[in-house]
Amino acid sequence: QLQASGGGLVQAGGSLRLSCAASGFTFGDYAIGWFRQAPGKEREGVSCIKSRDGSTYYADSVKGRFATSRDNARKRVYLQMNSLKPEDTAVYYCNAERSGIYYWGQGTKVTVSS
Length: 114
Description:
By secondary structure, this protein is mainly beta. 0% of the residues lie in helices and 54% in strands. It contains no helices and eleven strands.
């Protein structure tokens, strides 16, 4: 299971840190992704952090502003979001993936006001 938290209301230019807590599976073996879904839009990938070497990947829309990290000992993944824009407003979800096996957590809502 995955539990995302840390969302809230922030002004444009502000920062938020999302957290994703995992349980019930071998966390260190899974790549962890952050996705988001804005009202009326499809879910899109935001970032990914690999299991073995911790390589990170980001959507072009968040590159340079967002950073993901993981703490395997605590079974947590974080998404640091800086320089937030109104278009970052969405429900954010974390996802764990290994060899085609997926786990999804419930989302946390982020609202960026202009």
